[in-house]
C-alpha cells in the first residue's frame, strides 16, 4: 500500500518537523493540564510536569489479596493443571471438530484427572463454582461454557427444578461426566419469549408416561449446547398437556421441564424418535457443540418430570404449591438465574484479561516523543489514557459489583428469602446485561489500542471478542433483561406509594422520591471543589438523582400513553427511556458497591489506589451524561467543566498506578499469554511466534 508519507509533497525533514511540532503541542497540553486556577481544585491546579513522577506507592500484594478473594487455591490448581498439560491447551488454529473434542477432553481432564468437581459446588458453594468457571473460562472460553452447560444448565436444572428422587438418581453421573447433558429451552421460533414455546409433553395415563413432541418446524429445539456430539440427556422445556374430561379433552398447564434421554448410554447412538442436527460453525465458542433437536412421540416415564413446582399424580391429577401458571413459570425461571450470575462474573474475567493485555502493551509500546528525546510510552498519550483508564476503573467497579452479586446469590440459595430472591433476580439480569455489553465494546477498544499487533490472533483479542460476543444474547438477551430491571423498578415505585417494602438494593428509592426529586439545590449545583467532587456522597447522590428522575418521568409517560395505546403500546413507546432507566439504576448499584469496597479495604495504599479508580469511574460516568445533569441545572456550567478536568486528571493519576492495578488481577502468564502483553522481552517473544 502507498504510504501517506509517499503522497506528501513536503521533504521528509519538513514533514518530520511538522509532525514533531504537532506532537510537542499535544504533549505540552497533556503534560501541563490547562486548568484554570481555582481554589477548589488545589491538587489539579498544582499539577505540573514534575508532579508526573509523583506517584502513589501501592502495596501490590495487599491490593491483590483484597481483589483475589477466598478461592485463589482452586483457581491456581486449575491454572497449574492446564500449564502442565500442553496437550490440553487450545492452539490458535484448530478446526471446529477438533476444538469440540479438545474441549470435551479439557473438561474430562479437569474433572477426572485434576479432581476438580464443579457440580458439588453448584448448589452448596456457588462462590467456589463461579471461581472455577472464571478460571477455566480464561483457559478457553469454550471450556467455560461447556462446563456451564453440563453443570449449571443441565445439572442445575435437575437439582433445582427436580426433587430428591432426581438428585439421587442423577447427581453422581452428572458430577463424573457419565451423564453428559443439555439444556433444551430455545426453539427455532422462540428464544427470548420462553412462554411461547411449542414443544409438548402430553401425559398418557394408560402407560404412566409423557409423550414429547415437536409439533412443527418452528418448535425444533435450536442452539442446544452439548447436543450435536456429546450429550446423552436433555432437560427439555415443554408445555405440559393433561387429558381432561371436558369438551376440550386436554388442558395446557404451561411450560415445565422434563428429563429426556437423547442418546444410548452404551452405544451413544441417537435414541428412537429423537433427531439431532448440528448447528454448524459459529462466530465463536466453536469448542461447544450446539445442535438442534426434534422429538417424534418420544416416551419418557412420569418420574422424568422435574416436579419441584408442579407434579402429576398416577391418575393424571395436577398439583402445585403455586396457584397460577405465571407463578410457576416465574419460580422455574427464578431457579435458573445462576447462569446469569455466572456470565456476569465471567464477563468481568474477560474484561480483566483484555484490559491487562492492552494496558501492559501500552506501557511497553513507545511511539514518537519530543525531538531528540526517547520515544514515549503510548499510555502517556491522553487519548490512550482516555480509552483505557476509565476502562480499568470500570473493571474494578464491575469486579466488586459481581462479587457482591455472587455473595447475594449464595445467600439466596441458602435462605430462599423471598425479598432476596426478587433482588437477586433483578440484579443478575441487570448486571449480566450491563457488564457483558460493556465488555463486548471494550474488547474492540483494546484491540484498537494495541494497533496492528492487536489484530494478530496470537494476541487473543479476536478469540476473546468472538467467544464473548454471544454473552450479550444467551442466558437472556440483554435488551430483554434490562426491561425486566425497569419493570421491577416500576413495580417497586408503585409499591412505595402503596406503603410496600423495598429490598436492599432498591432501598435508596425510598429517600430518592422525597429528597432527590425536589428541585436541584442551586448552591450545591455550583460547588466545584475537588473534595466535593470526590466525595462519595456527591457522586452517589448524582447517580441516584438521575435514576429517580428517569423513574418518575417514565412512570408518568407510561400512565399517559397507556390510556391511548394500552399497556403493550405504551411500554413500546417508552422503551428506550426504560432501558436508560435500567442502566442508570445498575450503574448506581455498581457505584455504591465500589464505594463500599474502597471503604472496607484494610491497606491504606491499596485503598488510595482504589479510591482513585472509584472516583474516575464515578466522574467519568457523570461526565458522559453531563447533558442530563446540565439540562436540569443539577450542575452549573463551571461545575461541569471542573468535573471534566478532574476526570482527565484522575485518568492520568490512574495511569501512574495502572501497572499495579492490572498486576493485582494476578492473571497467570498463560492466560494473558498474548506475547505483546509480556512485560519483558516482549518483542523477541513475539518474533519467535512468527518464526524468527
Ligand atoms: C452459541 C449459543 C449457545 C446457546 N446455547 C443454548 C442452550 O444451551 N440452550 C438453550 O436453550 N438456548 C441456547 N441458546 C439460545 C439463546 O439462549 C437464545 O439465542 C437467546 O435466548 C435469544 O433468543 P433468540 O435468539 O430467539 O433472539 P430473539 O429473542 O429473537 O432476539 C432477536 C433480537 O430481538 C430483540 N428483541 C426480542 N424481544 C424483544 C423485546 N421484547 N423488546 C425489545 N427487543 C426485543 C432482541 O434484543 C434481539 O436483538 C444459545 C444460543 C447461542 C447463539
Description:
Catalyzes the desaturation of long-chain acyl-CoAs to 2-trans-enoyl-CoAs. Active on substrates longer than C14 and mostly with C18-CoA. Activity on long-chain mono-unsaturated substrates is double than with the corresponding saturated substrates. With about 700 residues, this protein is α+β, with helices and mostly antiparallel strands. It has three domains: about 75-175; about 180-330, Butyryl-CoA Dehydrogenase, subunit A, domain 2; about 335-505 and about 510-670, Butyryl-CoA Dehydrogenase, subunit A, domain 3 (Up-down Bundle), CATH 1.20.140. The protein has 25 helices and 13 strands. Strands 1, 2, 3, 5, 6 and 9 form a six-stranded mixed sheet that branches. A hairpin with a 5-residue loop joins strand 10 (about 310) and strand 11 (about 320). The longest helix has about 40 residues, at about 535-575. The two termini are about 25 Å apart. Flavin-adenine dinucleotide binds near residues 184, 185, 224 and 290.
Ions, cofactors and other ligands present here are: flavin-adenine dinucleotide
Roughly what is the average pLDDT, rounded to an integer? 88
Strand content: 5-15%
Number of strands: 13
Under CATH, the homologous superfamily of the largest domain reads Butyryl-CoA Dehydrogenase, subunit A, domain 3
Please give the largest β-sheet: 6 strands, mixed
Structural domains: how many: 3
Using only C-alpha atoms, the radius of gyration works out to: 28 Å
Supply the helix-strand structural class: alpha+beta
Shape: globular
Distance between the termini: 24 Å
Helix content, binned percent: 55-70%
In CATH, the architecture of the largest domain is Up-down Bundle
CATH top level label of the largest domain: Mainly Alpha
Which fold does the CATH topology of the largest domain refer to? Butyryl-CoA Dehydrogenase, subunit A, domain 3
Query: Helix segment count?
Result: 25
Multimeric status of the protein: single chain
Unreliable parts = 1-53
Keywords: FAD, Fatty acid metabolism, Flavoprotein, Lipid metabolism, Oxidoreductase, Peroxisome, Transit peptide
Subunit structure: Homodimer.
GO molecular function, one term: fatty acid binding
InterPro entries: ACO, ACOX_C_alpha1, Acyl-CoA_Oxase/DH_mid-dom, Acyl-CoA_Oxase/DH_mid-dom_sf, Acyl-CoA_oxidase, Acyl-CoA_oxidase_C, AcylCo_DH-like_C, AcylCoA_DH/oxidase_NM_dom_sf
Amino acid at each position: 500500500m502507498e504510504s501517506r508519507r509517499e503522497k506528501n509533497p513536503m521533504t521528509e525533514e519538513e514533514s518530520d518537523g511538522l509532525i514533531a511540532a504537532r506532537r510537542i503541542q499535544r504533549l505540552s497540553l497533556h503534560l501541563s493540564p490547562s486548568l484554570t486556577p481555582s481554589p477548589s481544585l488545589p491538587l489539579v491546579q498544582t499539577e505540573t510536569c514534575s508532579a508526573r513522577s509523583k506517584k502513589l506507592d501501592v502495596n501490590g500484594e495487599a491490593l491483590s489479596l483484597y481483589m483475589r478473594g477466598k478461592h485463589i487455591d482452586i483457581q491456581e490448581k486449575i491454572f497449574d493443571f492446564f500449564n502442565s498439560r500442553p496437550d490440553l491447551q487450545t492452539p490458535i488454529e484448530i478446526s471446529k471438530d477438533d476444538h469440540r473434542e479438545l474441549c470435551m477432553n479439557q473438561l474430562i481432564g479437569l474433572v477426572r484427572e485434576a479432581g476438580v468437581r464443579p457440580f458439588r459446588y453448584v448448589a452448596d458453594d456457588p462462590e467456589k463454582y463461579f471461581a472455577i468457571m472464571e478460571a477455566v473460562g480464561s483457559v478457553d472460553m469454550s471450556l467455560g461454557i461447556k462446563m456451564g452447560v453440563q453443570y449449571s444448565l443441565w445439572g442445575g436444572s435437575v437439582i433445582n427444578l427436580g426433587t430428591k428422587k432426581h438428585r439421587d438418581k442423577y447427581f453422581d453421573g452428572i458430577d463424573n461426566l457419565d451423564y453428559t447433558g443439555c439444556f433444551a429451552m430455545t426453539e427455532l421460533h422462540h428464544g427470548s419469549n420462553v412462554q411461547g414455546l411449542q414443544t409438548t409433553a402430553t401425559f398418557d395415563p394408560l402407560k404412566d408416561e409423557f409423550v414429547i413432541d415437536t409439533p412443527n418446524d418452528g418448535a425444533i429445539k435450536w442452539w442446544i449446547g452439548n447436543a450435536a456430539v456429546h450429550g446423552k440427556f436433555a432437560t427439555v422445556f415443554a408445555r405440559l398437556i393433561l387429558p381432561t374430561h371436558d369438551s376440550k379433552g386436554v388442558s395446557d398447564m404451561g411450560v415445565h421441564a422434563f428429563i429426556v434421554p437423547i442418546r444410548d448410554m452404551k452405544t451413544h447412538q441417537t435414541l428412537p424418535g429423537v433427531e439431532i442436527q448440528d448447528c454448524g460453525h459459529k462466530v465463536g465458542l466453536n469448542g461447544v457443540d450446539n445442535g438442534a433437536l426434534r422429538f417424534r412421540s418420544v416416551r419418557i416415564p412420569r418420574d422424568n418430570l422435574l416436579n419441584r413446582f408442579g407434579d402429576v399424580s398416577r391418575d393424571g391429577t395436577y398439583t402445585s404449591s403455586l396457584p397460577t401458571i405465571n407463578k410457576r413459570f416465574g419460580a422455574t425461571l427464578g431457579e435458573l438465574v445462576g447462569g446469569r450470575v455466572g456470565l456476569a462474573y465471567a464477563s468481568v474475567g474477560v474484561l480483566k484479561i483484555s484490559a491487562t493485555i492492552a494496558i501492559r502493551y501500552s506501557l511497553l509500546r513507545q511511539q514518537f516523543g519530543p525531538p531528540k528525546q526517547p520515544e514515549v510510552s503510548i499510555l502517556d498519550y491522553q487519548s490512550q489514557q482516555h480509552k483505557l483508564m476509565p476502562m480499568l476503573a470500570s473493571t474494578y467497579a464491575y469486579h466488586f459489583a459481581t462479587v457482591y452479586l455472587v455473595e447475594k446469590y449464595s445467600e439466596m440459595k441458602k435462605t430462599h428469602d423471598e425479598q432476596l430472591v426478587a433482588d437477586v433476580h433483578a440484579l443478575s439480569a441487570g448486571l449480566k446485561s450491563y457488564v457483558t455489553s460493556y465488555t463486548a465494546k471494550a474488547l474492540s477498544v483494546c484491540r484498537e489500542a494495541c494497533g496492528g499487533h492487536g489484530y494478530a490472533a496470537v494476541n487473543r483479542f479476536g478469540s476473546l471478542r468472538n467467544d464473548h460476543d454471544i454473552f450479550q444474547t444467551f442466558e437472556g438477551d440483554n435488551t430483554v433483561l434490562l426491561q425486566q430491571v425497569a419493570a421491577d423498578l416500576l413495580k417497586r415505585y408503585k409499591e412505595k406509594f402503596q406503603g410496600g417494602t423495598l429490598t436492599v438494593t432498591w432501598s435508596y428509592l425510598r429517600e430518592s422520591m422525597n429528597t432527590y426529586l425536589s428541585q436541584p439545590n442551586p448552591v450545591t449545583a455550583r460547588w466545584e471543589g475537588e473534595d466535593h467532587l470526590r466525595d462519595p456522597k456527591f457522586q452517589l447522590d448524582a447517580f441516584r438523582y438521575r435514576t429517580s428522575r428517569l423513574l418518575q418521568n417514565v412512570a408518568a409517560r407510561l400512565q399517559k400513553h397507556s390510556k391511548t395505546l394500552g399497556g403493550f403500546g405504551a411500554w413500546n413507546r417508552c422503551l428506550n427511556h426504560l432501558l436508560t432507566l435500567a442502566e442508570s439504576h445498575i450503574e448506581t448499584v455498581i457505584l455504591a458497591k465500589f464505594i463500599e469496597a474502597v471503604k472496607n479495604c484494610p491497606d491504606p495504599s491499596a485503598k488510595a489506589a482504589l479510591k482513585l479508580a472509584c472516583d474516575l469511574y464515578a466522574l467519568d460516568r457523570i461526565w458522559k451524561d453531563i447533558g442530563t445533569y446540565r439540562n436540569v441545572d443539577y450542575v452549573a456550567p463551571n461545575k461541569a467543566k471542573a468535573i471534566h478536568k478532574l476526570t482527565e486528571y484522575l485518568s492520568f493519576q490512574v495511569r501512574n498506578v495502572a501497572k499495579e492495578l492490572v498486576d493485582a488481577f494476578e492473571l497467570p502468564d498463560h492466560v494473558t499469554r498474548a506475547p505483546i502483553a509480556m512485560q519483558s522481552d516482549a518483542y523477541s517473544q513475539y518474533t519467535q511466534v512468527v518464526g524468527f
